[in-house]
Structures are given as C-alpha cells and as structure tokens.
Amino acid sequence: MLLEAIRLLPPHYKLLIFGRQHPQTLKTDGKVDEYLQKVQVKVMEKDINDRVFFMGELGHADFQAAAGSVDVVWLPYYENGQDGSGIASICLELAPRVLCSTSFAFDELFRLIRYKNAERFDIGNVLELAKKTEMLMRREVPSKPYGDDSTYTLRSQALMYAKSIGWRGPMPAHDEAPIGALVKGAACGEGSSPRARLWLALDRLAHP
What contacts 16, CB < 8 A, 6 or more positions away? Predict the structure, then answer.
C-alpha cells in the first residue's frame, strides 16, 4: 500500500520505513520471509529504489528523535484485533503530522485525546492517503502540545490504576501527589492486593 502511495506523490517525497521483521515470522530454515521478499521486489520493479529507505529497528531515544524529525508519519494498520498502539502514542506526541488508518487500534486513543496533528484514512485507500498527505503538507504545523489531554491525563490514568489495585484512601487532588506516589500509596495501603505489592517491588527495582 505505501509503495503505491509514494508513487502518487511528487518525486521529492521519500518513504522511510522504520522497524524490523516481526519475531514471530522468523524462520529456522534460513529462508527470507515471503512478504519481505515481495516488498523488496516491488520496490525494484516500480523503480522507486531511490525513494524508499529501510531504516531498521531503532532504540527508544533514536526512534523518538526520528518521529519528531520527519514531515509526516504514516500508520497504515490493517485490522488485526489490536486494541492499542504504543508506536502511535509516541508519534502523535512528537510528529508534526500523522496519518492513521481507521483501524480499531486507534479508535480508543482518539476518544481519550483530541490531536491537532492527526488525520485518518480508510484502511487500504491509497488515493486517500496520498491526497491527505499533500493536504497536511500544505498546512502549518500546529503548536505543541499536539494533544489535548485536559480531560484524560497521565495523572488521571494513574489514579484509576491505583484505585483498581487497592487504593484505600481518598483520591488525592490533581496537584497533591506525584504520580509515582499514587501507585506506591495503593501498593502500601491496607488490604492491598498481591498485584499491588508486586508493582511496588518492581518500582523499587527500577528506582532503588
């Protein structure tokens, strides 16, 4: 799909593909994955080898830097039952423009936070993806932060999590305690669950 879309865009547009082959598709017989092989063949057959670049898997910091430095991020997920995407969350926070498919994986995210830098396109619609890419490139980049988290914040999610694992006291006010303390308070509270105590143990390992 992306290879077709890049062909519909002006020649100066380049496609950078980040990531690696999914570990579950690796084979022990030494053969190249069929899908990966087809992608490489299509790149060469369509004469776009100078416009498509496989960037490989990046570390966390490098991926964040990459997401914030490109002009547009494409997230063309097909429907596969996935109900969330960490990659999408990172890109929506850092990239100036993001195009997401209408996969269910993004639906809940957009219900929680309204993003100024994002548009959606029908799964598999190459023409829509290309046209909306050009449309976004003609717009001014919105100011940061790109997402409006005034309703659902990291703190509100921490409060909900703390309550679910055993918080036994009154909920702290918005600015009353740091997020880590909320979860620790739930873990140390009277009647806290084994799950809560496990979280506290993990937190101590991470922050001795």
Answer: 53, 55, 66, 70
- What is the DSSP code (8-state) at residue 23? G
Which two structure tokens, joined as six digits, stand for 127? 């023409």
Is residue 99 within 8 Å of 136, Cβ to Cβ? yes
Residue 141 amino acid letter: V
- Helix, strand, coil abundance in the chain, percent, nearest 5: 45, 10, 40
Do 33 and 90 fall within a single domain?
Answer: yes
For the cut 50, the answer to whether the pLDDT of residue 195 exceeds it is no
Q: Are residues 160 and 116 in the same domain?
A: no
Q: Verify cis geometry, omega within 30 degrees of 0, for the bond prior to 145.
A: yes
- On whether the CB atoms of residues 135 and 151 are closer than 8 A, the answer is no
Domain boundary at 112, 128, 148, which? 148
% the chain with pLDDT above 70: 75
For residue 49, CA distances in Å to 3, 11, 43, 140, 154 come to 10, 12, 6, 30, 42
* pTM for the structure as a whole: 0.72
